[in-house]
Amino acid sequence: MGDTLLDYDAEAAHYDATRGGVPRAAAAADAVLRLLPPATRTLLDVACGTGLVTERIARPGLTVLGADAAHGMLRAAAARLPGRAVRADARRLPLPDAAVDAVTAVWLLHLVPFAEEIVAEAARVLRPGGAFLTTVDKDACHDVDSDIDAVLRPHRAAAAGSDRTELVTAYAAAHGLDPMPGTVFTGHGQGTTPRDTARKLRRGYYASWFAGTPADVDALCARLAGLPDQDRPRPDPAYRLACFVRRPAARG
């Protein structure tokens, strides 16, 4: 289940608390660190949000920078990354070509209709041999085969998700990035309840995959209300982190 394009300036104040907090951020950061090439010395976290994940990637010998387009998010990130957070559009990063060893985009591509532009810009600022790490298939990962998913699954659009693995892999290939083995990590605190799912469905949170009408929303909410344990979270999702490596520069 995905997010709509929210007002991230307004969301910044309570974003971490509603997105799994430190446990989810730490799991994402650990996944990033597992995939980074050993020679990585500089990393740019695109759409870093509040910086909760970004600050957990930082290690001695690894300079980590954050970029986000939302003022509210950036204020929070700047407190966690003093002097290392900048306001920037992910499609127009304020860096020269081949400037960093790694670029991360965690929980970003599923939100936007211009995923290829973000992949292309990440490839531009990567040095040859550098890694682009990004979450993929986020909406699909939220289907944990629970009773909630059994209710919603018939209304999932077949081709939903601008971060589908096959799309991101094609974008990467077109911009000089080759696929490498990825990893998975637990989305702590993201297991949903029937009551909260119905609330989000009515508010349009699932626009990225929901294929239905207002009448369908009413019918689905009625079915969700009939499920047991209305406030018991179902299992957390397992998110997928893909890895792509910048090809060496062509010899003239």
The N- to C-terminal Cα distance equals: 47 Å
Helix/strand/pairing category: alpha/beta
Average pLDDT figure: 90
Pattern of helices and strands: HHEHEHEEHEHHHEHHE
CATH homologous superfamily name of the domain at 8-142 and 160-189 and 236-246? Vaccinia Virus protein VP39
Number of strands: 7
> Mind telling me which CATH architecture of the domain at 8-142 and 160-189 and 236-246 this is?
3-Layer(aba) Sandwich
Strand order of the largest sheet: 3-2-1-4-5-7-6
Q: What is the count of helical runs?
A: 10
Helix content: 25-40%
CATH topology of the domain at 8-142 and 160-189 and 236-246: Rossmann fold
Please state the CA-atom Rg, rounded to the nearest Å: 18 Å
Any idea what the shape is?
globular
* Main sheet makeup: 7 strands, mixed
Q: Spans with pLDDT under 50 lasting ≥5 residues?
A: 1-7
Please state roughly what percent of the residues sit in beta strands, choosing from under 5%, 5-15%, 15-25%, 25-35%, 35-45% or over 45%: 15-25%
Report the CATH C-level class of the domain at 8-142 and 160-189 and 236-246. Answer: Alpha Beta
Short descriptors:
single chain; 252 residues; alpha/beta; Rossmann fold; seven-stranded mixed beta sheet; 20% strand; disordered N terminus
What report would you give on this structure?
The chain has 252 residues and is α/β, with parallel strands linked by helices. It has a domain at 8-142 and 160-189 and 236-246: 3-Layer(aba) Sandwich (Rossmann fold), CATH 3.40.50.150. The protein has helices at residues 8-11, 21-35, 54-57, 71-80, 115-125, 138-141, 147-152, 165-174, 194-203, 214-225; strands at 42-46, 63-68, 85-87, 100-105, 126-136, 177-186, 238-246. Helix 5 packs across helix 8 and helix 9 runs antiparallel to helix 10. The radius of gyration is 18 Å and the shape is globular. It starts with 7 loop residues before the first helix and ends in a 6-residue tail after the last strand.
